[in-house]
Design brief:
Helix content is about 20%, strand content about 20%. By secondary structure, it is an alpha/beta fold.
């Protein structure tokens, strides 16, 4: 470290922005080569903190309200803390389907082309390695009718909830092919991790036992102990700047609480902050860093996809069987999801023919579910149509440090709303067949922000139609890579974390190559 005036300057080989699943994947694949790796994280470490604590302490974004006005009610994070969303997520870990790489025959009305520069086969070995190393628990791929292919999960499925058992029986009777939700939670002892003991709800809670994958606990902490990385918490990545024509790049950072400035210089920068924060960082950065064609530069921040989602909650006419005082499920404990169907992922009856995922999403404690309550909660997910006008913007107003505030400018496409409604009707029918006689729909709230951000720095071969190339590098800028959901030209209709990790692993190989190292398989530290 050197100091110039009041600004500390840190130099490294690689600077990774974001410590969530993507950033942790990149760091793991670059470690062990003698490189100096710095990681910049706006949030702090969490241990027993609740998700609500993290949300209330994180900066908001402006979103458009129902009356047309703008209000600071949006949430531009998965979660803002070391380890990112993996600390609090439910751990559902699906692969993208093959149709997600070429959905044009179903989604033809988009004003931004969906042109992936890679296909599923490019990501298959990354999926296989990640599932094997991180301990995916799940069914054999043959049980999932739209599984794109690959290895068998490392561990057997987690124990199914009583609601999941009822839903599974109803789905089988309806001619569907239900399967256990693939979960990044170890169902039995795995290495030094203890198998899940169903001690508490997973979603929105820290897993103190370590059964659920946590990007910090399972990837970054071992690297930190070996001094292979250094994490800078409470450091907001403000902007990237070029080095006055010298060919270098540096990052301006600031402590959002104290206002203390820092500067990071590196041979390579890898942006893993999420598709909102990464786009905002580039929009605040030097225009000379956004190389490529004028049309390509205009795409930064555009094409924002959230995934449309809605929950369908069912109440039974009689209690579920199999519950007793010794069953952890009676208290609402246990994994977030144990049941899924993808039979409706592609269906000619659905508007456009492209449907989505229906899977169990068990509520956490904050819902106040009584022990004797037997409710089933299904989430319906559809991948949204990329739109030029759905985007991340910078406000004319600034925060206390003079940094432009964020705006999430998003409106769902009418055909996507119709697709979601169709899928919710299928979920209602399934709940009824399982004995849940009353149901109601719970809005997903995706227009205010989401844990599923994609597409704002889309990858592609043509610089006129994309921001980054197939390896995640900014067009005509060898020093800056993007390895988060920003990369994805289409979001698909499944939970994105596993796919973002696979993309980050793929991009990390590109970073390695640019530094003179050969690609390597992902291996836990």
């Amino acid at each position: 470290m050197v100091t110039t005036g009041m600004t500390a300057i840190y130099e490294s080989d690689v600077c990774i922005i974001g410590t969530g699943p993507a950033g942790a994947m990149v760091a793991t694949k670059l470690a062990g080569e003698g490189l100096t790796i710095h990681m910049v994280e706006q949030g702090a470490a969490v241990s027993q903190a609740s998700l609500d604590d993290v949300i209330t302490s994180s900066e908001p974004a402006y979103v458009r309200l129902e009356n047309g006005a703008w209000g600071p009610l949006g949430y531009p994070w998965t979660t803002c803390n070391i380890g990112g969303g993996s600390v609090f997520y439910g751990a559902a870990s699906f692969r993208l389907r093959r149709v997600d790489f070429d959905p044009a025959r179903h989604i033809s009305s988009t004003d931004i082309p969906i042109d992936w520069p890679i296909d599923f086969e490019c990501l298959r070995p990354h999926y296989d390695a990640i599932e094997s190393q991180l301990g995916l628990s799940g069914a054999h791929p043959s049980e999932d009718p739209t599984h794109p292919g690959g290895s068998t999960p490392a561990l057997p499925p987690l124990r199914q909830s009583p609601q999941g058992r009822r839903l599974r029986a109803a789905a089988v009777n309806a001619g569907l092919s239900p399967f256990a939700t693939p979960m990044m939670i170890v169902s039995e002892d795995f290495g030094d991790r203890k198998g899940c003991d169903y001690c508490s709800p997973c979603i929105e809670h820290v897993c103190t036992r370590g059964s659920k994958f946590d990007a910090y606990r399972h990837l970054l902490a071992p690297l930190e102990r070996r001094n292979e990385i250094r994490i800078f918490p409470n450091t907001k990545a403000v902007r990237l700047r070029d080095d006055d024509g010298g060919g270098g790049v540096f990052l301006e950072g600031i402590d959002p609480h104290s206002g203390v400035h820092t500067q990071f210089r590196a041979r390579r920068f890898v942006l893993c902050a999420n598709a909102v924060q990464t786009a905002a960082l580039l929009l605040r950065s030097s225009a000379t860093l956004r190389h490529g064609t004028p049309a390509g530069r205009q795409l930064v921040g555009r094409g924002l996809c959230m995934k449309l989602n809605e929950y369908v909650v069912g109440y039974p006419s009689e209690p579920a069987d199999g519950l007793d005082d010794g069953d952890p499920w009676i208290k609402g404990h246990g994994p977030f999801s144990t049941f899924a169907v993808t039979d409706y992922y592609v269906d000619s009856e659905c508007p456009t023919g492209l449907g989505g995922l229906i899977y169990e999403t068990r509520p956490g404690w904050k819902y106040g579910i009584a022990p004797e309550d037997d409710i089933a909660r299904l989430e319906c997910l559809v991948g949204d149509t990329p739109s030029y006008n759905n985007r991340v913007r910078l406000s004319s107003s600034t925060d206390k440090h003079g940094i432009p505030e964020l705006m999430i400018d998003y409106r769902p496409h009418p055909q996507d709303l119709a697709r979601l409604d169709w899928l919710c009707e299928k979920a209602e029918t399934l709940l009824g067949a399982a004995g849940y006689r009353r149901s109601w729909r719970e809005p997903g709230g995706y227009m205010l922000g989401s844990s599923h951000f994609h597409g704002t720095c889309r990858a592609g071969i043509d610089p006129e139609k994309s921001v980054i190339d197939a390896e995640g590098r900014l067009h005509e800028q060898e020093r800056v890579f993007i390895a988060d959901g920003s990369y994805m030209p289409f979001p698909g209709a499944v939970n994105p974390t596993l796919s973002i990790q696979a993309i980050a692993s793929h991009v990390a190989d590109g970073v390695r190559k640019s530094l003179g190292f050969a690609p390597q398989q992902f291996v836990c530290p």
